[in-house]
Amino acid sequence: EEALVPLDGSSTVRFRPGTGVWLRSEQPWQVRRSVPTVPLREDGTYAIELHDGWNIISNPFGLDVPWAAVDAANDEPLPPLWRFGGSFERAETFASARSGTAFYFLNDQDRDVLRVPYPAFPDAPTGSAASTSAPPALTLRAVQAGTTRSEVRVGVHDDAADGRDRYDQVAPPPRFSRTALRLAAPTEDAPPRRQQWAAEYRSSTTDGHTFSLTLRAAPGTPVELRATGLDVFEGQEVVLVDPAAGETYDLRTTSTVTIRSEEGPRSLRLLVGSSDYVETKQQVALPSDLQFLPNYPNPFSDQTTLEYVLPDPATVRLAVYDVLGRQVRVLVDERQKAGRHTVQWNGHDESGRRMASGMYLARLSVGETTKVRKMTFVR
Asked: How big is the CA angle at 184 (ends 81 and 202), to the nearest 5 degrees?
């Protein structure tokens, strides 16, 4: 469905001007080769052949071409162009293949070709950045080590329709990125390549919106989610909900939120609207069962953090045991309010002695429910 598959040598590839392939190597490499110039059509464009789904394309000219000019040379508005460098980002310039860069382009409009104008051709279209720009939006960025790895945009527009329309943007396949933040398509019957979005606009006539998000990152890796452009939803509440952790964040007071990913994708909710709408949706999004999250770091030598989420106020007992079932230390033994709770263990017993290296069990008891997590302590 995505039309991007690895080559295992069982088939051949027609490597021609305008196409690209993704090469992986364990060692640095370079290729030096002369290629003939491409023939232009009478209108000064070159036609890149497309197949249905995601295409890897390259600019066959020796000059860069603004993506707005490519958009102007084709019959209908084009989806965005994506550049990959460990993570995907939108590209405003279709850089020459001389740069060694190819790009990702989604063909879901039944196009046979993509027409690329040669910039030096007389009367070549230049396009306008405004023609390819999207309406103002709230942007949520996934940031690691100060670098944006992925981002999504949400907004409202008077002309926006339910389901996908010209304002919405399908995102590239997330499996290629180490860290990926995506919007879930509002309709479940969308084909696989259209189920993950990078931008979504809704009608401005309702009192609130719930945007479903998915965050993928290496387990245990902290990811900062940074929100900008909140003025798009002036006068409305903007709240990010992390159901797995039982946590809610008011993005108007805390525009940066740190999420620590677990195994598999992390489902989040972005709530925008009136206070009544957000409060109602917030309660629905929070977990109805006890959650005991994996401790981090694990293994650990100095200290590890344990987190759990209570759906209701309850008496909680959290204790550490060795593999023989002997109690090492009681970390919590009290009644606590509903929500997310955090506690640390430093590898010491009740008397302050440092334990031996090995595996220990964290046992969480709430009412008649008990959950256990394995922890590895290394001295």
From this structure: 85
* Average pLDDT for 185-200: 76
| pLDDT exceeds 70 at position 4 | no
Mean pLDDT of 88-101: 91
- The three-state (H, E, C) secondary structure of the chain, written as one string: CCCCCCCCCCCCCCCCCCECCCCCCCCCCCCCCCCCCCCCCCCCEEEEECCCEEEEECECCCCCEEHHHHHHHCCCCCCCEEEECCCEEEECEECEHHHCCCEEEEECCCCCEEEEECCCCCCCCCCCHHHHCCCCCEEEEEEECCEEEEEEEEEEECCCCCCCCCCCEECCCHHHCCCEEEEECCCCCCCHHHCEEEEEEEECCCCEEEEEEEEECCCCCEEEEEEECHHHHCCCEEEEEECCCCEEEECCCCCEEEEECCCCCEEEEEEEECHHHHHHHHHHHCCCCCEEEEEECCCECCCEEEEEEECCCEEEEEEEEECCCCEEEEEEEEEECCEEEEEEECCECCCCCECCCEEEEEEEEECCEEEEEEEEECC
pLDDT tens-digit map of 195-205: 889 999 998 87
pLDDT at 179 over 70: yes
pTM: 0.71
Residue 31 has pLDDT above 90, yes or no: no
pLDDT on residue 131: 58
CB 331 within 8 A of CB 343: yes
In the predicted model, is pLDDT for residue 183 greater than 50? yes
